[in-house]
Amino acid sequence: MVCFNWVSLSFVMLFMVGLVSSAKFEELYQPSWAFDHLTTEGEILRMKLDHLSGTGFQSKSKYMFGKVTVQIKLVEGDSAGTVTAFYMSSDGPTHNEFDFEFLGNTTGEPYTVQTNVYVNGVGNREQRLKLWFDPSKDFHSYSIMWNQRQVVFLVDETPVRVHSNLEHRGIPYPKDQPMGVYSSIWNADDWATQGGLVKTDWSHAPFVASYKGFEINGCACPATVASAENTRRCSSNGQKKYWWDEPVMSELNVHQSHQLIWVRANHMVYDYCTDTARFPVAPVECQHHQHKTNHN
Ligand SMILES: *[C@@H]1O[C@H](CO)[C@@H](O)[C@H](O)[C@H]1NC(C)=O
């Protein structure tokens, strides 16, 4: 009798754990296209790229501010030509976008992580990193934290990029459009690996990226609600205070600033801010970043 109860109890608990972890993806996200290339196995979601198609998923809601996190284990072995992306984006011709793009490589060669920020439809703010670990060996967490003061890109909670609000200098900052959360995998062998020189080797397909640990801690904006109303709902005011509007969230703390300096010194391989061939005059926000770094 005792044994029977224990078995049924553990069965129920297992069932509930299964529900919680696998329902998490479905709670927050839905497939975007090529549904048959996206499979779940327990808490793990796998996205597959083959010669027929890539695939992707998107959040069911849009958000204004907060933090989104996923844990990703990137395509193992030969991933040359593939790009896996995790990003936030608003809609329309003047959209804003915060991107993580993982550019695959041949077996044994390092991935490149490219980040970019679009403001009012304009990007061209690429930075590139080589990570301090092999992102295809294990799951690592990738987060985007967004508030009215800054957009912070984090890898395993280490900040790798900050895009600050410099509106006081007349520089537009993305803070008025709700953003969806997206991920996709696709073939980009026209540009991704060694500038497009290395092509995708389809004999190594399918290329599989695995995901788990889906978290969104933000203010959801229902599509049915007018945008002014969403802006009001998602701003802290006298009654409610969102965690991302706390003063400590308005800039990196000292420890995080040091982490970012370490990342930039040891792992950054490209920064649009220092690409004088592309931008003979450094973009305005770069002049400020430079200034700020020098003073730290
Ligand atoms: C791939 O590996 C080569 C050789 O190590 C490196 O130059 C390149 O930056 C790596 N990444 C990409 C995306 O090409």
UniProtKB/TrEMBL annotation:
<keyword id="KW-0964">Secreted</keyword>
<protein>
    <recommendedName>
        <fullName>Xyloglucan endotransglucosylase/hydrolase</fullName>
        <ecNumber>2.4.1.207</ecNumber>
    </recommendedName>
</protein>
<feature type="active site" description="Proton donor">
    <location>
        <position position="101"/>
    </location>
</feature>
<comment type="similarity">
    <text>Belongs to the glycosyl hydrolase 16 family. XTH group 1 subfamily.</text>
</comment>
<dbReference type="GO" id="GO:0010089">
    <property type="term" value="P:xylem development"/>
</dbReference>
<dbReference type="GO" id="GO:0048046">
    <property type="term" value="C:apoplast"/>
</dbReference>
<feature type="glycosylation site" description="N-linked (GlcNAc...) asparagine">
    <location>
        <position position="105"/>
    </location>
</feature>
<keyword id="KW-0378">Hydrolase</keyword>
<dbReference type="Pfam" id="PF06955">
    <property type="entry name" value="XET_C"/>
</dbReference>
<dbReference type="GO" id="GO:0010411">
    <property type="term" value="P:xyloglucan metabolic process"/>
</dbReference>
<dbReference type="GO" id="GO:0071555">
    <property type="term" value="P:cell wall organization"/>
</dbReference>
<keyword id="KW-0808">Transferase</keyword>
<keyword id="KW-0732">Signal</keyword>
<dbReference type="GO" id="GO:0016762">
    <property type="term" value="F:xyloglucan:xyloglucosyl transferase activity"/>
</dbReference>
<keyword id="KW-1015">Disulfide bond</keyword>
<dbReference type="InterPro" id="IPR008264">
    <property type="entry name" value="Beta_glucanase"/>
</dbReference>
<dbReference type="InterPro" id="IPR013320">
    <property type="entry name" value="ConA-like_dom_sf"/>
</dbReference>
<dbReference type="Pfam" id="PF00722">
    <property type="entry name" value="Glyco_hydro_16"/>
</dbReference>
<feature type="active site" description="Nucleophile">
    <location>
        <position position="97"/>
    </location>
</feature>
<comment type="function">
    <text>Catalyzes xyloglucan endohydrolysis (XEH) and/or endotransglycosylation (XET). Cleaves and religates xyloglucan polymers, an essential constituent of the primary cell wall, and thereby participates in cell wall construction of growing tissues.</text>
</comment>
<feature type="domain" description="GH16">
    <location>
        <begin position="2"/>
        <end position="211"/>
    </location>
</feature>
<dbReference type="GO" id="GO:0009834">
    <property type="term" value="P:plant-type secondary cell wall biogenesis"/>
</dbReference>
<keyword id="KW-0961">Cell wall biogenesis/degradation</keyword>
<feature type="signal peptide">
    <location>
        <begin position="1"/>
        <end position="22"/>
    </location>
</feature>
<keyword id="KW-0052">Apoplast</keyword>
<dbReference type="InterPro" id="IPR000757">
    <property type="entry name" value="Beta-glucanase-like"/>
</dbReference>
<keyword id="KW-0134">Cell wall</keyword>
<dbReference type="InterPro" id="IPR010713">
    <property type="entry name" value="XET_C"/>
</dbReference>
<dbReference type="InterPro" id="IPR044791">
    <property type="entry name" value="Beta-glucanase/XTH"/>
</dbReference>
<keyword id="KW-0326">Glycosidase</keyword>
<dbReference type="InterPro" id="IPR016455">
    <property type="entry name" value="XTH"/>
</dbReference>
<dbReference type="GO" id="GO:0004553">
    <property type="term" value="F:hydrolase activity, hydrolyzing O-glycosyl compounds"/>
</dbReference>
